[in-house]
Amino acid sequence: MHERHGEDDAVVLDASGSMASDDGTGTPAIDAARKSLTSLVDPLPTDAKVGMRVLGATVNTDPMPAEACDDTQRVVDIASGNRAQLISAIGKYSPNGWTPIPKALEQAGTDRGGSGKRSIVLVSDGESTCGDPCPTAESLAFSGVDLTIDVVGLSVDETTRQQLQCVADKGKYYRDTGT
């Protein structure tokens, strides 16, 4: 991933219901997301400041209620020396709810503070169910902070790829091919 990671990072895991879908290799997308985030977190130096946020983990009623668009929680504070806590949190969440990417990005922006180099890494397989996340990413990019947003798209269709690519305009878009 991006060479700046570890300088005050917020990783965001999509735990929406679609993450139970096949990632193209016969396994659930959540497994690919876990593998991707673990490979990012595991080699970080102990002094790297990293935290984690999850989206879509708690509200799963149908039809989608308004509160589903606020369904994002900071599950590990941005700090150094918390690798074990991050690895544990990465493995804890199962596919559940909707996909509130705009709110998750907004809150990840708040989680990481307002000065210095910062990055957000979003791992998702789905299109946002709560509006276009591009304006949120753009707002974060123009907030006066040195920010990179990287996105790992897991087995996404073309519409979703375009949406996630737009979010990653201040970083890189990685396509997980399941290999």
Quickly describe the structure.
This protein is of the alpha/beta class and 179 residues long. Helices cover 29% and strands 25% of the residues.
Structural class, by secondary structure, is alpha/beta
Low-pLDDT stretches are 1-6
> What's the total count of β strands?
6
Shape annotation: globular
Helix proportion range: 25-40%
Strand order of the largest sheet: 3-2-1-4-5-6
Strand proportion: 15-25%
Radius of gyration: 15 Å
Element order, helices and strands? EHEEHHEHEHE
Can you offer a commentary on this structure?
With 179 residues, this protein is of the alpha/beta class. Helices cover 29% and strands 25% of the residues. The chain contains five helices and six strands; from the N terminus they run E-H-E-E-H-H-E-H-E-H-E. Helix 3 packs parallel to helix 4 and helix 4 runs parallel beside helix 5. The two termini are 16 Å apart. The N terminus is likely disordered.
Question: Topology, pairings included?
Answer:
Elements: E1 7-14, H1 29-41, E2 49-55, E3 72-79, H2 83-92, H3 101-111, E4 117-124, H4 134-141, E5 146-154, H5 158-167, E6 173-176
Parallel strand pairs: 1-2, 1-4, 4-5, 5-6
Antiparallel strand pairs: 2-3
Features:
179 residues; 6-stranded mixed beta sheet; single chain; alpha/beta
